[in-house]
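Bench notes, afternoon.
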Amino acid sequence: MLVVGRLRKIVAYALAAISVGAIVWCVAVASPVTRSAPSPEPPSPSLLEVYGAQEHSPRTPPELTTEVTIADATDADLAVVPQGRLDERARQLKITVVHRLVLDRTDLLATLLRSEGPFPDDIQGFTDRRLGAVKADGGSAVLAPTSRLAPVLTTSGSRTTVRFTITMLRQVGNDALPQLDFVPPTEQGAVSAREITLIAPTWTVIRVERVTPDREQAGRLVFNAYTAPVSVRLAHESYGRPDAEQTDLFSWTPILSVFTAIALTVFLGRALGASWWQRTPNRELATGIALCVVALLLAMLLARMPYLGPVILFGAVPVLALRHARRIVPDRPPWTSKDALLVTGLGVLVASGMLFWAFVHGQVPPLTLAVGTVTAALAAAGSAVAFGADLGIAVLVARLAAVTAGVAVAALALALWVRALMSGGYFPPDSVRLVLALCWSLIPIAGIAVATRSWSRVAIVVAVLGSLLLLGWPTEWLDAGSWSVQPDQITPTTPPPLVFGQPLNEVTRGALGLLLLTFALLVLRLRRLGATPDAMANPAVVATVIVCLMVLYLTPRTDPDSTAIDLPLPSLAITSLVAWAAAIWLLSGPRPEIAEPSSRAEHRELIRNALHRRVLHGSEQELYRLSRGKLGSGELTMEDFERQRLDLDRALTLDPPHTETAFATSAGCTPWQNGLAAFVVSLLLSLPFALIYGWPDGPELTTWVFDARFMFTLPAFGFFYGYFYPRLRGTQPVTKALYVMSVALVTELSAYVPSLVDPDIGGFDKLQVVAIVVGQGALVFIGLGLYWEWRIMFAAGEPWARVRNVRSVRSLATPLVAVVIAAGTTAATSAAGQTVDRILKGDTATSQGGP
């Protein structure tokens, strides 16, 4: 038996070596998929070529003149501009370009323009190719699409004049220096020389590049342009740059930014807790992550190491995360053999697609690919059978063989993909997204397992789907550079947009995804720690909530131009610091002793005692109020009055103490349950205001989520309200809500401090901004307080009418105030002008890192 066992092991190792050898053989004979450089697009055919005209030489060569007029746009011109795009502080321009092409009357081009000209389908292409394009640049913003009128033909004698009129609406800053670029015609046979006249009565030409003007006058410039592009820079006649003044180099912005970063770091350390740092696996994880961060920074600085960043972010970090999760999570993964077969089947499906791509594009010869795939799979399955033969369970051995064969096929596809990637040839961009997303998904899978102390199939599915979205929107998958397109048909892609100063590539997306994942893991940790009422007094929980608040308020959506105002409170970091101070203030100060119920039954008993005490207090007040008249009229004797008073005092004395604090307890719920309920209600109450502030925007998932933070700031304070409800100031739901509303409004308004002190903004606009912000906060938190009052009564099984009913005007004061504030906010919103919209919405480029 010993000899048979050794022989079986030798056979198993030999088959495994054959499987690995087949994979190595296929990779060795693989050749890079060549992608020929796309030839430049041939110029679009001219009208003569389109209609098959013969060579024609007019008796007189055509002449081309271009007249460009720059003037202030009138109200009639700006009527076509979409609402909200105009800036009252900027200058709106109307640029009119008139091309005059003079042809011989018998020129076939004139005939074709009369009969089947390019208008409106190809008027832009025709004018740009035949007459030359005129572009407005230099910081000018497009107000409306460029309009091109139909060509106008006039014939006099032997000459025909064709006039093309183009109108552009642009918006420039008062201190901007707009630029006009005159691009020469690109079509063969077009006029090689043209006379350009620039008419700008209120502008001064300060720079002309690559041409010498023929005539220069005030507000008028004439020059001849040939085959080289020409650029003209203008300055408004009222603009004069002031001399440089001595300014103080000291700035509060970097100081507060550094202080905010230090505070976040300190609170993050407190959020983890001292016990977290005492565990060896946690210290090893922190050291590994620190080394990976240093390596990522080196990869960003060293352009000669382009693969270092992806290897660290999609290779080293997932391995660290999985290793840490295996050591921290106490339970073993509840995976079954069916789960392994399902994952293997999905992997084989993806690998088959990648192998089919290698076959179609000739990366590996077809026969070699087929033989190598079959050999690797069969040899791996045989090796698994040889190793598992002593198990004695045929079904288990068969499943092990199927999984091993699938792993071999996936390994072959991955090896060929890496070979295509490293060889510098062509490979499908979607394959990069797919492989990197699957690798990155190991990080959230491990993180969720550590945060919840358990493994979950649902968490794996959510992590994989989230990773696929992280590496690209659904519209980005299967795009023009995908699996089914031939390499020589791929057009060069445009440079990726910039996000926070970095190109939006896979590494940037993965790094931003890690930041979002860290925030999500902190929330999951609050869920795990908030399962018991003792969490409210845990310093780690308090620090975690403060970190979440500071992150949400770290970069508010404010106007970036307003940060140039010299203020001691720059808006970059002040809101985050104010949120920190607000959270500390809400949890500080003396508190009455609260008898916290341990169950719903105890909560019900406390509420009933509180209601009973309220009835006694009301009866005592009613006795004193009515007894004054009855004692004077003789309807009530002093003996009856004393007896009733003593009975009420005795009942109040016998009543359990601190029953009025029953409305300040957690109602027998856990902090997480209360926090989640308050967050949902606050989010629903604040959603209508998203129409004012604008919906989130971003080129992909991470930047979209970063831009959406403003929607969760007030709901985050609502979560704070519910999570720490018994510890907050006040003894009643609405009172506690008013305390939270006051600090939330201070935090929200601190983001608008630069705009509120800007002298260029009118007082009415500032008042509208304050009204909208205050109205939103009042509606959210007064509504939350009323809901919490109803929730406490509902948990006790008592009707809400026992504490607030229509017969008591005083009880209706709070909801009536909420309705009035909401109505006032709606009126202010409907009357909000463009300046108010700009202040509230800010510049989305601030959160996206650039246009």
